[in-house]
Amino acid sequence: MPSIPASLPTRRLVATLGLLFATACMPVLAETHPGQDKLVTEVARDTGKSTTSLNALLDGAQKQQSILDAISRPAEAKPWKDYRPIFITPKRINDGIAFYREHRALLESIGKQYGVAPEYIVAIVGVETSYGKVTGKYKVLDALVTLGLYYPPRATFFRDQLKTLLELPDNHLAGPVDTLTGSYAGAQGWGQFMPSSIRDFGVDADGDGRIDLKNSLPDIFASVANYFAKHGWQTGGPVAAPARADGAARPISVKDSKTQWPVEQLEAWGYAPVQSLNPAQPSSLQSLQGPDGTEYWITFQNFYVITTYNRSPLYALAVHQLAQAIAQGANGMDATQ
């Protein structure tokens, strides 16, 4: 007996149920990292890059527990008495003097061009990477994926850096994205630039069409100097000067290193500089735990500029003291610290 054909509504219902069943049985392609799909969509929209190639890059990146461990114990959490000996050592000073002397012509040319004292360029690469010897062992992509997608306390900042890295033109990097190495925070090159700093302050000083902060000394030096200049470095201006506090000194608390008071105001509050300073010079004050008790430092605009590179006042003072020692030694004076 011939079968009775189903009605049209029935056939539609069966087809719909079949499609839903087939869809439910299909494997779901989960993103490799949380938030990857949204990130790829944004980068592809903003740059026109292929979502396939972007996903391939991110699929190859790995979350690194050692990076999460490292960011939880930064050196800047140490007091000044323990922090200073990490960076101000006879070897780092002597290596910096030799480095300055070897590259003096290039450093002084770039320093003059940007209005930045060359010893501070040397001190930055000295503190950051021991003059290019230690630029970091972590894959930059792993670092920024780990911190941008797996580290909620600072996810916004590091996700932005990851997005910027994926958006940078090839000629802004020292090599393919998945081969770049750097710090646990994703900083690259001798000056340890984050992707946004490469984008905003990187300089192709050697004119080869590429910003190479790993292999080109002109690019490295000029990029550091340009960073300082763009952040308000004052040519020939002071950085920091030690002060003494009298017994009635007014306690001062500062949130950052921006200049807030003229030197004469700090003097009126009981903080006397140990060297001659312009009484009207805008300044601030840092109180740090030294080996022999509290140290007081009157700081200026150029000190604040160094803290835009690394916001810790300990870092800025280490750069300042290393720069001073290098300049003294490079010019034949006693650089003993």
From TrEMBL:
Residues 39-324 form the Transglycosylase SLT domain. InterPro entries: Lysozyme-like_dom_sf, Lytic_transglycosylase_MltB, MltB-like, SLT_2. The active site is at E128. It comes from the Bacteria. Keywords: Signal. Residues 1-30 form the signal peptide. This is Lytic murein transglycosylase B. The lineage of its organism: Bacteria, Pseudomonadati, Pseudomonadota, Gammaproteobacteria, Lysobacterales.
